Amino acid sequence: MEGKGDHNYEMPMGFSFQLGLNEKALSAYAKLDDQEKRHILEAARKVQSKSEMRRIVEGLERKF
């Protein structure tokens, strides 16, 4: 995966964990375009609590 060291695609552990617990949110995330995914990942990197991370993931679930 040469050239894939783009920090924008590194998924925070808490986000990947919460996403793994929510099948609908995972499906919604998979349907996002690259720009939308980067925006979500940037927001996920800034969270300070589990509840904030859950809100991001639940927001994805409601998106679709």
Strand residue content: under 5%
- How much helix, percentage-wise, in residues? 55-70%
Describe the main β-sheet briefly. Answer: none
- Oligomeric status of the shown chains? single chain
| Total tally of structural domains | 1
**Average pLDDT metric:** 88
Give the uncertain stretches in residue-range form. none
Question: Can you count the beta strands?
Answer: 0
Give Rg in angstroms.
Answer: 11 Å
- End-to-end span in angstroms? 30 Å
Structure annotation, total helices? 4
Q: Name the structural class.
A: mainly alpha
Q: What is the ordering of alpha helices and beta strands?
A: HHHH
Q: What overall geometry do the principal axes of the alpha carbons give?
A: globular
Report on this model:
The chain is mainly alpha-helical. It has one domain (14-63). Helices cover 67% and strands 0% of the residues. The protein is built from 4 helices and no strands. It is globular, with a radius of gyration of 11 Å. The model has no long low-confidence stretch (mean pLDDT 88).
Which features characterize this protein?
4 helices; 64 residues; mainly alpha
Summed up, what is this model?
The protein is an all-alpha fold. It is built from 4 helices and no strands. Helix 1 packs across helix 4 and helix 2 (about 25-30) packs across helix 4.
Strand and helix layout:
Elements: H1 13-20, H2 23-31, H3 34-45, H4 50-63
